[in-house]
Amino acid sequence: MTYVEDFAPGANVLPPRAWLDDDAARVALSGDWSFRLSPSVADAPDDLKDPDTSGWDTLAVPGHWQLSGYGAPAYTNIVYPFPLDPPYVPTDNPTGDYVRTVAVPADFAGSRIVLRFEGVDSRFAVWVNGTFVGWSSGSRLPSEFDLTSLVTPGSEAQIAVRVHQWSAGSYVEDQDMWWLSGIFREVNLLALRPGAASDVFVHSSYADGVGTLRVDADVAGTVDVPELGLSVPTGVAVTAPVEPWSAESPRLYDGVLRTDGGEVRLRIGFRTVAIVDGVFTVNGNRVLFNGVNRHEFHPDRGRALTEQDMLDDVLIMKRAGMNSVRTSHYPPHPYFLSLCDEYGLYVVDECDLETHGFGYEPQPPNLPNPVMDPRWRDDLVTRMQRMVQRDKNHPSIVIWSLGNECGMGENLKAMYDAAKAIDPSRPVHYERDTEAEFVDIYSRMYTDPAGCAEIGADTSKYRNLPFILCEYGHAMGNGPGGLLDYREVFEKYPRCQGGFIWEFIDHGLRTTIDGREVYAYGGDFGEPIHDGNFVCDGLLFPDRTPSPGMLEFSKVIEPLRIVADGNGGVTVTNHYEVLDTSHLTFRVAVEVEGEQVSSEVLAVPAIAPGETVSLDLPSFDVSQPETWLTVSAELAESTSWADAGHRIAWGQVRLDEPVAAVPAGGSPAEVSAGVQGISFGTVSNARLEVWRAPIDNDVQPGVADAWREEGLHRVQHRVVSAGERDGAWEVVTRTAPPALQWGLRSTWRFVAVEGGVQLELTVVPEGQFPEVLPRLGITFEVPKVDRVEWFGTGPNEAYVDTREAAAVGKYTSTVADLQTPYVRPQENGHRIDTRWATLDTLRIEAIGTLFGLTARDWTTQDLESATHTADLTPRDATFVTLDIAQTGVGTAACGPALPDRDKLHTAPATLALRFTQ
User: Fold this and answer.
1) Does the active-site annotation cover 405?
2) How does pLDDT run across 439-455, given as a tens digit for each residue?
3) Which of 405, 552, 634, 730 is labelled catalytic?
């Protein structure tokens, strides 16, 4: 057995230590390396003691070789893409050799010279000047090697690294992401001077306005914090009045540790994490995690992120109102954690561990999960120690996590003990400890709101530990829906402390298929085993633009609740953890039928956390129909993460009393009914619509398959009768699938009105009809439309369970911009509760019941058959759907079934519309 298939974590690797911002000299080894890829370990020449690289290629470090044309990416969610036969891996094991010559600076003389790798996937070995140095595993963890005896300062040194795509370590790195290989984080050559601190542990707690600081180091020295007037020896605790660190107010103090050999710059945040009466607190305040799971991803670079990429992620989170991030399912680049310290995000730092493909607690004759197998114990414990040691000085990290989806086993308890031995100050999380045997936080995935409420209401369960959803609100495709239900539970039960949306970003790799640029997902690279577009389940599209799901989540988690008080006024509740509202400006605007008639700043006294106040509003004329008042809270001044004027929260109240609309009378309109549908004016082929291009939340749980069994995807339309009746032109149609004994009988009554046609539609189900419909409405074609204007909800799409972010107003868009570019095309672009819409010169008005508006340059069938957005080619007409209602979107692709409340139950329905030119 070679080191590739060894259970051990490595050989000749230095002990783990803290990531430091110090003055140690270093040579950055990012850039081009000579590179050679061999198809297997056996095919890789045994020449790294003296490699001749003259015929080799070059490859950039950091990076993944699959994204540079060597091999191909592969995606699996749970299953391994190789046989389960640990610790063995396939003979077909691509092996990449990297070689680089570096000039070792003369001033490295007298220092300990260390080669540091921040991340290499999956296992690698190192040679320097022809001598084998050692090997390491743990792809998302640092590894250091002592080269002092192997290199000569003032001379060149040759570094050779052999990286294996598959190794024993691959069995414990099954983390629902692309399998990508190579040196994907930085490499540095360090000079650690004698007398310089190489490991530091900052202990900084807070209570009652006072911070306590103690800095431990492997070399004695003095810690200076000028802003606090502190100068104290290492190992000695000192107190001082301080401002605490929290996600909302991330106060950091600059410090310096000085030793005889150098300096370490410190960023000190005073905060205390504690669990009090079953509630997780920071500085004594209950925390509600409005968080997200974050993989490291870029559509071109995979997991090789730049500092700008990381900053972009943090700014996106802060601007969206998120306060926390779970580093699923491995420690992130340390720079990201420094940004979380600076900008303010609570972090659940998760170990580089997942073994989902073995199943949870498998029993013989099945193989044991690695967390149950003592042969893996040292590797798993070492992984935990490496993470805790590297990241222990970040105040943003408030919880350690053992890993993800490994079932239960003794090795996990050993990892827990190892973490506590290093750092007893932070609680430890692990979701698969389903009975809370040893963890400090009780956690679940995808529990429905009712289940969360049961846990919150019964403090006798699970040792009365704080409860979080480490994953919920699965954001795959069109969704997530129903987030408001979770918020209400989190705010009702103190023990229910929020959770983390799955996940932050779609992992669509930018590539070209058939000459068209697309975001690729599982199967697009020819993988024989893959999990399709399950890798695209983020709040952001791959290019980091927000999806409607991101906007919905941001609205749901707003720190202020601005709602009608029931008496014609507005109340504001402050849900901030520590901030009052003195940093915000409140504005009130009034619109009548989408036109603004007034706007002014409100004088609002500072509202303390947890308080609710009623706003003193000016008096407004409420005699006009569709009079809407919107109160917004904006940043009064710029912050590090957003400009002044950035909207933090908003609420909308209707001021007038709705008046029931009455259809107008008139004479029968001229319409024609034929094989393709009903036509009048510029409207062609109008017919009943019950099908939608299945969204991921329809497909994954089999809902769409059940709908197909009911024939909903292939209904046929029959004209039963057409003619003048009771002052209208009446067309009766029956919409029904072949082979089945049910249908929808529709009566269409058309009356001529000034400039157009009025339609009254009645739909009655017949026979053994399905219990639930995807949608119910009418669809038709009009000549190619350029611009659409509408009065209703917007500006983005909204469905019955994703409408919190939708404000009533008047909006304008092109048809192209009405589309939502989900990586796998599916139903999108629906605007619920539309009052009227104009499509170029055609105006459509609701009479009574509001309609849902969708306008596209392709048909529903086109949308359903496309596999990528590039497959969608605009047609010569525009296709419009006006829905009476549509089933909600939910999160059932990986989560609870859609609640009955949000389903469109088959029942008689009506719709009245006016079409004018």
Assistant:
1) yes
2) 999 999 999 999 999 99
3) 405
